[in-house]
Design goal:
- It is built from 16 helices and eight strands.
- It is α/β, with parallel strands linked by helices.
- Strands 1-2-3-4-5-6-7-8 form an eight-stranded parallel β-sheet, sandwiched between helices.
- Helix 4 (about 80-90) runs parallel beside helix 15, helix 14 crosses helix 15 and helix 15 (about 315-340) runs antiparallel to helix 16 (about 345-365).
């Protein structure tokens, strides 16, 4: 019904380079670290059903092929050819790739090459700080090196991302910490840190956030659900309200990732503050056949110029296919229904669909 431009996937990750068996494949269909219920697999989820609906035809199988048949076909083709076929069918023209996950994953260039599109890097703040700490002997050198690393990253990255929601929670003091507090926190963290230890200190997390704000690049913030390393109640985006107020007018756009089940709260913040945007990645993929309902809820309050498409694809090219297809289907059904009942004009619906699919992201990230 609506002719969409090439999609801009404004938040995603790399895909795995090797072949996968059932156990290793299905682990990427869930955010859980636990095994599936006895006698089932994680194909028995909204995400798993969506993979079986949309991906087999792209590899020459009928829709709803069994997991065993599908994975056998995947092995026949090999990881590279599978990725090329699946990513090339997504209709995604631009990928903004968070490179902060460890593992044997494609980088932005490899992902773009396989998909026939283009890619830009999103730099994860916490990983950047941890990498700097690995080569810094004192608190003073750490902070100097971190400032330099942030400056260098800002020259080529499309934006920054923080996972403070995982490391501490979003209820952080909103103001930038003072130099003395930052120096003390850096010294204490470095002294107690084990090799490759994670950054969880709230003062240093705030220091990173404000460093990203100062760059003027968009700042992505994880909100809502994720893996069990997260306390969901500490990831409600409304906990960022004071930080949002403190950063208004400073030239940095804040993009609230995921959101679910707090996606309405994310939409509220986007409606109230000019520099706040809401994202639907991960949410639509994991709600599957309910994606229409969730998208409609996001559009209740979110201004149409403030909602961004993404897949949050990670590990499996299938998740990019599912994220893109569920988005298209949900847009067709939700906006199409509003056109049919006379609430919206067709031209307006098509314009809004294009904004969410690509236009808003192109404006925010200066693509």
């Amino acid at each position: 019904m609506f002719e969409l431009p090439p999609l801009v996937d404004q938040h995603c990750h790399g895909v795995l380079l090797g072949d996968l068996g059932l156990g290793s494949f299905e682990a990427y269909l869930t955010e859980s670290a636990a095994p599936a219920a006895p006698g089932t697999t994680f194909f028995d989820t909204q995400t798993g059903f969506a993979v079986r609906r949309w991906c087999p035809p792209l590899l020459g199988l009928d829709p709803y092929a069994s997991p065993a048949r599908y994975l056998a076909r995947r092995r026949e083709l090999g990881a590279y050819e599978t990725g090329r076929k699946l990513l090339g069918a997504t209709g995604i023209g631009t990928f903004l790739v968070d490179t902060g996950l460890r593992g044997d994953l494609t980088g932005p260039g490899e992902l773009a090459l396989a998909a026939g599109g283009e890619a830009h890097e999103i730099v994860r703040l916490e990983l950047l700080a941890e990498q700097v700490a690995d080569t810094s002997g004192t608190a003073q050198s750490f902070l100097a090196n971190l400032a330099e690393a942030l400056h260098v990253a800002a020259q080529s990255a499309a934006g920054f991302k923080s996972i403070a929601a995982y490391r501490h929670g979003l209820a952080l003091a909103p103001e930038p910490p003072g130099p003395g507090a930052v120096l003390r926190a850096a010294g204490e963290w470095l002294a107690a840190r084990r090799p490759e230890g994670r950054l969880t200190d709230p003062v240093l997390l705030r220091h990173l956030l404000w460093g990203a704000v100062a760059s003027g690049l968009p700042l992505q913030l994880h909100t809502g659900f994720g893996d069990p390393d997260l306390r969901l109640d500490r990831a409600d985006p409304v906990l960022l309200t004071d930080f949002v107020k403190a950063t208004e007018g400073l030239g940095c756009d804040l993009v609230l990732l995921h959101g679910y089940p707090y996606h309405r709260q994310a939409g509220y913040l986007a409606a109230m503050f000019p520099h706040v945007y809401a994202d639907m990645g991960l949410t639509l993929t994991h709600t599957g056949s309910r994606a229409k309902a969730v998208l409609a809820e996001m559009l209740e309050l979110t201004p149409f110029g403030k909602l961004l498409f993404s897949t949050d694809g990670y590990g499996l090219p299938e998740l990019f296919v599912v994220g893109a297809q569920l988005f298209r289907t949900a847009v067709e059904e939700v906006l199409g229904e509003w056109v049919r009942d006379g609430s919206w004009a067709y031209a307006d619906a098509g314009r809004v669909a294009g904004m969410i699919a690509a236009g808003n992201a192109r404006r925010v990230y200066g693509l």
